[in-house]
Amino acid sequence: MNKLDTALVTSSLKEAGFSLAESEKEADVVLINTCSVRQHAEQRVLSHLGHLKHIKKSKPNMVVGVIGCMAQRLGAELLGDETIDIVCGPAQIPQITELVTKALQEKKKALAVTEKIRQKAPGEQSKALEEFESFFDSYDKQIPGQAFVRAMRGCNNFCTYCVVPYVRGPEVSRPPAAIIEQIKRLAGEGVKLVTLLGQMVNAYKYNSNGKSYCLADLLNMVSEIEGIEWIRFVTSYPAEEFYNQILKAMADLPKVCNYLHMPAQSGSDKILKAMNRNYTASQYLELLDKARAIVPDIAIAGDFMVGFPGETEEDFQGTVRLVEKARYKNCFVFKYSPRPGTMADKRLQDDIPQEIKRRRNIELLSVQEKISDELSKQFLGKTVKVLVEGLSKKPHLNSFEKKGYPQLVGRTAENWIVVFNGPMDLAGEFAKVKITRTSPLTLFGEMI
Ligand code: 5AD
Ligand code: SF4
């Protein structure tokens, strides 16, 4: 979601005549797009602001803006910082060019956030956002051949630990016609993979002309677009609603990648209840069984949180058991961090010591690592189709190195990372790679 917002901001500034600077030292304007989901992300922004303060001493005319969820959450409090000139929430991104131009010309501070995010009629804000987003369909593609497309904004779910409903506002689905139009234009620009985005994308619902559209309908419509070859969607909430239809679309439509990211958060029913997640561990596992029955080779990824208030060793062992049973392709594990304004922060004490959170985090990751290792080994000797992203950022050892070619990275439809040597101009194209070596998270091979 944030990567998409950054791309939209970049495009709208480029449209207004700005260009990207090589470094902050050369920039007239520095914008930081922020995330509020964990305290750590916010701390990093604050320390980065300290660094900018230093640069600003020798460049007093430099404009510094904080945009995104942290801007929405802290609003005027951030503007009090002498380094910051612009504070702009996620719903105000359509105003960014105006805010930046004004700040450069008038040297006045500007605050643009939603006053009462929960009370604002969703329609009011979404109209401006919708127009903005539909206009910038040819936004910066950070990875060649791929684009994120928002299916919906906001969230109504109010998991007790989560700040998203407070900073991104209520759930709003975008009109299917706007989404389809946008993807058609992206396909015309060479985009082959679209990833439909939503905090709870499986809840996508739009009523138009007496017809109701759900995510499965959207997947069917996107599948018909010429040029689009792969379609993914993230993130899914474990719920029965629309579930069979979505999985059936995945099974029936060859373009829909067999990949499901469906966070469980915990394997303890007591903790799930305290988190206001509306399912039990066994219901969650039943959903995974159902997914595998409908789409046999589906790759599933999960998110977990350790150290939620009141999480005992027994609760944590419930999470370990769930991970063992779920056989994820990979999962992301986070240490609980209280977010101001959320129910968990207001009502529950952050009573699990940092040291225990750390240990549980490491333990859960190591349980998953063994599973990922087993699953990745099944690819040995097989040939996979990958969409090439570009140069591999991390240099990997590869005994089958093709002389003269750099190391590239790509992903399979199921989202497995594949590293191999090949020509740079393959970025944005498909390639066939024979897997010769594996690690838990990465497959290595030779291009065919
Ligand atoms: N503390 C730690 N992790 C969190 N997440 C969401 N809120 C918090 C929090 N307060 C995690 C969840 C979610 C992922 C995006 O971030 O696991 O799925
Ligand atoms: Fe946050 Fe829960 Fe909504 Fe996901 S579903 S964004 S965790 S409130």
Provide a descriptive summary of the structure in words.
Helices cover 38% and strands 21% of the residues. The protein is α/β, with parallel strands linked by helices and 448 residues long. The strands form 6 sheets. Strands 15-16-17-19-18 form a 5-stranded mixed beta barrel. Strands 1-2-3-4 form a 4-stranded parallel sheet, with helices on both faces. Strand 16 (407-411) and strand 17 (417-421) form a beta hairpin. The two termini are 34 Å apart. Iron/sulfur cluster binds at residues 155, 157-159, 162, 164-165, 199-200, 237.
Task: Tell me the layout of helices and strands.
Elements: H1 2-15, E1 29-34, H2 39-58, E2 63-68, H3 69-74, H4 76-79, E3 86-88, H5 96-106, E4 110-112, H6 122-135, E5 146-150, E6 152-153, H7 164-167, E7 172-173, H8 176-188, E8 193-197, E9 205-208, E10 211-214, H9 215-223, E11 230-234, H10 243-252, E12 259-261, H11 269-274, H12 281-294, E13 299-306, H13 313-326, E14 330-335, H14 343-347, H15 354-377, E15 383-391, E16 407-411, E17 417-421, E18 430-438, E19 442-447
The structure holds 5'-deoxyadenosine (5AD) and iron/sulfur cluster (SF4).
Low-confidence stretches: none
The helix content, as a percent range, equals 25-40%
- Mean of residue pLDDT? 94
Can you count the helices?
15
Largest sheet: 5 strands, mixed, barrel
